[in-house]
Amino acid sequence: MRVSRKDQAALRVAVVGPCSAGKSTLLPSLKDAGYEARHPAQEHSFVPDMWLRITNPDILIYLDVSYSAARQRRPHIDGGPERLAGQHLRLTHAREYCDYYLDTSDLTPLQVRQAVLEFIQLWENEHR
Question: Does pTM top 0.85 for this prediction?
Fold first, then answer.
């Protein structure tokens, strides 16, 4: 069970990754756990450090996904493997500086949530 964060500043968490990696599904869980969680849409920006400029997070989470998993999750949005490769290119800076990388291709939303929350709690224990 989470300790109440009411008496301390909320930890700022930015979640980046290509489309269909699970960012939008994860964010409500992070907010419910008391974190200030944002998605800076780095995968669509040609400004390499937009994630930093927009959120200046305490923790940067990078969720990744394979092309085949992305197609299964959102078959109506494609663009081919080139679209994913372009997003990975725009995410290069974030990938280099992320605190936690997680490939979500073979994970359920619950498994992603659990893995990310476990990492954040470990990070908090080491940094606060």
Answer: yes
